Amino acid sequence: MLRRIVLGLLGLIVVAAVSLALWEPLTAEAPSAPTFKPQDVRIARDSFGVPHIFGKTDADVAYGVAYAHAEDDFSTLQEVLAMTRGRAGAMLGEDGAKVDYAAALLDVRATTARDWPQLPADVRALFTAYAAGLNHYADKHPGEVRLSGLFPVTGEDVVAGFVLRSPFFFGLDSVLGSLVEGKPVGREGGPALDATGKLIPREPTPVGSDPADRLTPVGRDPADNGSNAMAVAPGRSTDGATRLVSNSHQPWTGGVAWYELVVHSEEGWDFAGANFPGSPYPFLGHNKYLGWTNTVNRPDLIDVYRLALDERGKQYRFDGAWRPLEEKRIWLKVKFGPFVLPVPRTVYRSVHGPVVKNDEGAFAIRYAGIDQANMVTQYYRLNKAKDFAEWRAAMAGQGVPATNFIYADAKGNIALFYNAMFPDRPAGFNWRATLPGDTSTALWTKTLPFDRVPALVNPRSGYVMNANNTPWVAAGPGDELDAAAFSPLLGIEDDMTNRATRLIELFEESGRIDEARLKAIKYDTAYARTGYAKAWMDRLLALDTKGDPALARAQDLLRKWDWNLDGKGRGDALALMVLRPANGRHYQRRAPPDPREVLSETVAHLQDHFGGLDPRLGTVLRLRHGEGASRVDLPLDGGNDTVRASTLWDAEPDGRLKVRHGDSFIMFVTWDRQGRVRSESIQPFGAATTRPASPHYNDQAPLFVRHQLKPVLFDPVALKASGARFYRP
What is the pTM of this model? Predict the structure, then answer.
């Protein structure tokens, strides 16, 4: 009898285990496969494996973009798709479940379902074709599918990915993460106003909003966002050329790592640039006529409201009446080992937007671009623009909630647009504080038109630049934008980075600029002896190190350091490591760290792993990727706020610092006097970053560490002459 009971219990356990392993795909929605049959799609791979996609129609090209990207990184594409379907937790565990919660809280699928039928027909066709290309690859390679029931995907699924990820680029993840955990909310943006309209001095962001605590979307690095962008006009060039430098800083792998591609359609879509996994088109780069790049900007685009709830927590007061708090039960699907467990959560919504309840109360969130998918149309129209007027008209569509756009074209125009969907906020509230949620007078419903966006077009200096700094100084001394002409309610940042300071210094001292000089500017590795870096170094050198010979020796090295992380001077590795914490706090608008603690930890690390305080920078800072025969391990230079950016790294067991974020996709674009375009580019690894067996897994790395570029074969004739491999998906 006992034996039968035990066997029965074991059987139940086995059934339960099998059920936990298999139930999630059975409950997943299975949409119908998109109906799309390509007319003519060809993919060409150049000598570095970069895909060039040719199609009869734009939709054909989008189909090929999906297939080519899947060939190189199907694994990451699936992570992005799982996010859009609320299944990231089932694939990635607890971290993925946080993204699923955010998607449910923001009601991403409802937004997409409402906006999808209203998108222009050509945009829907593009996304439908892209989804079909992903499904085609999945059908041909079923062994690579990581999550049962994930395919087929639809164009609507792909659009949902844009709706979900877009607000995280201006800090919504930080606000959500802080509210969910009941911590003080760290806010982006510029000055605060009191009820009388006077400026309120800005306090450092509370320690409780540390980026490590953020609710982080798949693949996005949670801290120290950065990018550099530069454009030089013909009048400032030695040869009359117009030049654009795209130098985005992104993670080197994952859901927001750049993927290079070139597209050609018989419908007139020709573009070279890079996208993120899950996009049918490049987000930056150039066509024959014009180009642009982006840097992260940080206006105050998020408002938090405290709701007044009734005793049951079911209603909130608004304009003197009680309204029902929308409530929806969701089940997060969370992978634990081989099992996927259902975890219940409740999401709330008020007239303001998503609502988070914590021990401090109920807080509603309103943010730029809330509940809209227009960014997918804007990016496509920018790709197809043929002159400055068309490009500017696409920008005026205001689908992209935030990010600087730095522009250049064949006619010699250059410009910086501090793009943001600024809330049309009424005066009389401190918009940098938690707002009253019980009155419509504090609830904005519109955004300001595009002509209210700060912009600098064709400045006298002949250059524009941005390195995640305030837009007022985009073209150097004498060409500043007038900050007083813009309302403080816009919340435009007044930050300066070392990169911005150095770029202005370098442009101002350069005179006329040729191609070689522009490249030298881009690869600058120096720190300016001003700002937060100077103040931080002074604090380190002022420490009383009597009785600690190692710290005293470190101070001596720092006193003699040449303020350049080029890997040639003494003390570079020490300076790199002590500057990073200060820069992180400065960028996050927080109080500086403890200088003794930072110096002590750095000294201990260098002594333990390198037997001294002065190893060569390239010995410590490394580009590492892969294992075994496919592995690369190369020296790097630059730091986390130098123009040549090695932004974030992980300390490896051998003490080396493995960079994972910084200079990523780099592109130099030139239009000569006759308006003819050519470009060069580079990536840290290669085109196939998750395919170790591919010859293009790491083939760009040696060039990347040597500050070298490869040609972009934008002209199909040059591509064919190079011996590129053509095939059909």
Answer: 0.92
